Amino acid sequence: MKFVSKGSEDTQKIAQNLLNSLKPGGLASVVALQGDLGSGKTNFTQVVGSLLGITENMQSPTFVIEKIYEINWKGFKNLIHVDAYRLEKDKELLHLGWEEILKEPENLIFIEWPENVKNIIPEYAKRVYLKFIDENTREISFES
Known about the structure:
The mean pLDDT is about 95. The chain is of the alpha/beta class. The chain has four helices and seven strands, in the order βαβαββααβββ. Helix 1 (about 10-20) packs across helix 2 (about 40-50). A hairpin with a 2-residue loop joins strand 3 (about 65-75) and strand 4. The chain is about 25% helix and about 35% strand. It has one domain: P-loop containing nucleotide triphosphate hydrolases (Rossmann fold, 3-Layer(aba) Sandwich).
């Protein structure tokens, strides 16, 4: 599915559409966000967080790599926001407990820059592609 967002209201609708397609399974649910710098990956995750009831300020975890937020939605208990921008090897994410967080079906993981750790992103991960069109417009696509 391909969408065009011309502002926060559009992005909320698109994020809700994505959330509606997710459900807990035997392992953590993973959403891999791909796009160039400035394409809106962090903003999209912030919108998702807001829809899931997170009220604290969600900033990009570029320097801390990973932030965990408690949620209570459709059986998910944690929204885990990972930013792999600074990572050069898969093992760097493995050192942060990646394998353990993947084993928990109550985890909903949004990871930016998954291409930097592509060998450890599960095949079942939902891929979201974001593209900068102009200052207010983004193209967002994913499979339903």
